[in-house]
Amino acid sequence: SKSTNVGIPQDETFLPCIFFEPTIASDSSSKPKTISAAGLHFIATHQYRPGSPTYLDSFLNPFWTFLTDLLPLWLAPNMVTTFGGLHCGLAYGVLWYYAPDFDVSPPDWVVALCAYCTMAYYTLDCMDGKQSRRTGTSSPLGQLFDHGFDCICTLAHLATVSSYVVCGGTYWYILLQTTLQFAFFMAQWEEYFTHVLPHCAGKVIGVTEVNYSLGILALANSLIDREAFYSRPMSAVLGEAFGRQLPIFVRELELRHFLMTGWGIMSAVLMILSIRRVIFHPRVAKPSYTTVQRLKQQVNALSKLATPFALYVGGFLIPPTSVRTRYLSVTMGLAFSLITKKMIVYGMAKMAFAVVQWDAVPFLLAAIWIRYDDRLTREGADFVLGVLCFWYTWRMLRWVHLTIYQICDRLDINCFTIKKRKIM
Which positions are catalytic? Predict the structure, then answer.
């Protein structure tokens, strides 16, 4: 089928599609399309609805406004976002040099640099929207650009934590990455169906608290002997008296593994709550629906999690000792990021999202190959993942370029500069 190209734009959010999304009609342009004409209409008419701020948001808002007022008026909001993202790129690059596979602890100054980059990134992330309103250049592209950077910057946050707890080459690292990226995808999946992006739990804890806490935690870790601190068994952490009350497997867990177990449990709870909010949301389970209709819509919504769940499982298929952790992390991270970016854009464009996302297939096939082919050496497995790293990088940059080009053309704006309006 083809997406509606004329007449009243159709909301395709609940359109069932398993293997392929509806074909996007072409026009006179030679460029491939990633967004349908109806999707561009919904993006152009999108109205941003900010969530309720936490106490910390309200406290820091004057500070963010003050910093934004220092920026020149010619600076495009997306450049503010990009500058923030470059901080994450700097932290990731330095960590790659000093802790390439997260199996050694980097120098203290590197961890301190990551702390600064984490807090600077989030501060700039809070300033870009203010700069857009200050310059009168607010647009749906800004929101998409912001969330797209958030998607890829999760890898920098992950690298920072993994480097100071030293969990590379283990399934613990895979647990950290897969749960983080799956949870991030689910937040976009929830917004896709409910039009509400979850960003806080009440007034106390939200993304602001989490991001600044990551920065403060990294700074604190730059001041201690991290290897000695995180390798302690829980019996030593809790003390002899309290430790005896715990099961033996808990007492013998190293502190780092105990914390990562807690992260996994917390992530699972948040995911379950997200599923509950979606399948019982009035847009999915309308009161006017029959039981069968409601069940169909709920299954349709849940089916969109199939591909990211396959990536989640695919990460555990690869024995962590059979490949370099960084190669596995980048390849899997880019695959997750690509389908998450697609979910972000399609949510705003109200386009159908297929159950099977073919961009995940190369990674999944590589995971099966590495797992079950005993003739494949570690060098061979690294080569396979290395090739996929380059392929996913090209694929993501190509998709992002085409998407931004379409949106800029539809909204008559520039991505990285403020376009001068013609005076009639």
Answer: 147
